[in-house]
Here is the input.
Amino acid sequence: MKPAVTAEALGIPEAFNVAAYFVDRNVVLGRGSNVAIECGEKRLTYADVQRNVNRCGSALRRLGVRAEERVLLLLHDGPEFVYAFFGAIKIGAVPVPLNTLWKAPDYQYVIRDSRATALVVSTPLLPAIQSLAPADRASLRHIIVAAGAEGPGSNETTHSHTQFGLLLAQGGAELEAEPTHRDAPAYWQYSSGSTGKPKGCVHLHHDLVVCAELFGKGILGITAADRCFSVAKLFFAYGLGNALIFPFAVGATSILWPGAPTPDNVYATIERHRPTLFYSVPTGYGMMLAHTRAPGGAPANARDFDLSSLRLAVSAGEALPAALYERFKARYGVDIIDGIGSTEAGHMFISNRPGSIRPGSSGQIVDGYEARLLDEAGAATPSGEIGNLWISGDSVCAAYWNQHEKTKDTIQGRWLRTGDKYTQDADGYYWYSGRTDDMLKVGGLWVSPIEVENALVGHTSVLECGVVGREDHDGLVKPMAFVVLRPGVAGTPDLALELQQFVRERLADYKRPRWVEFLPELPKTATGKIQRFRLRELKTGG
Here is the structure.
């Protein structure tokens, strides 16, 4: 196996500011007139982006934001996110995108943890911050409100509110990038927090370039002619790469949609803006496939949605069932390449490739990364056996902020413990078997919840499902399935029995779910991952 590619090997110099690379470089290379962002009616060129990044950065500096200070971004997808993200980096500050779906206690935790001095926030999200006690946001010297907010409220005495538009107007159109080091902190991203408190992953200036080179160019083959639309939002790693880093690496166009990713919105955005690269999560693809233009009409009997502009679709966040891949391919003639990445690694490190797809697998190692599967004792597992996935690559974060012991447990030398269990076949394809704490031991044998879920999704009545362990009357763990049915299908005891038999005919009997419960929807993280710990908490009969 080839060693992981380093930032130095990619030609990234020691004196390096990643904002200059992704923004200024496009103008220098003659791409200034290329459309960088489309958002609703807005069409912004790379020259427009450069001016506004400079204005944002210089205005933040005038406010007193210093190098290495954290700037929280609680923003819906839109140009303001881009300006604030790269503007902060350009002056040597550290932007920290925040999950827009969190609640006030989550923001309280992150403000205290990061000791951020400034916050840029979309108007609809401001109340969650204002609900916090002054002591819980004491580090914030400035609150900058995007999208036409009013000035300071009458109850604000220790925190200033600035309109984002006014901030830009106060900044200068020219700004020299802070001479940072390629190994200096550039941005943080907090993990999704599906269990416990979120962890702040400290990423360095070179990390985003590594992701863009190895996955954006190496796997997607992205060029300036591409148009990118990501259902996954900019606040987490998958969306940041999809909708900002990859297109900005080559002067392509990013199509930003700040609203809810409903099937209607997603289809309307695709038909209106005509992307060539489309990114979503398995849940999103399932919702799209369950949706038709004519209510109650099958796609074959009604004019279907026009996805003809797409050259490729991408999936991550959770393993994509083979059945979803096949349905999407049959309906639209578009391949979906599934893969796995993480907040810690910046983006994807294992992926299928165009023209080399094995439905149901996560694909092969992305060139430039390394992977290994180890047992609990740290020994390599034989081909075909389940092991713990470790990866190595130069986009892996430097540490978890304020979590020294967790850092040492997760990052050991050049290797990152992903917490995922996988098998690898003889051709080098990786097959997901679940998270370390999601695997089930049934009758002394490991059972992958993903394998059972993939079997269930193959049934025509099933939209999506989640499988967890449940103790029977003897205290022994057996699989239990929580199933969301397709529209118009009723959950009945007979259907539950049918689903159990459906799995039994496809998998070993010990993998058959002993209980089937029907739910209107599954609990998920913002990235679309099923929160199996919440399923385990549900009180059910049977």
Summary: The chain has a mean pLDDT of 91. The chain has three domains: 18-180, 208-435, 445-537.
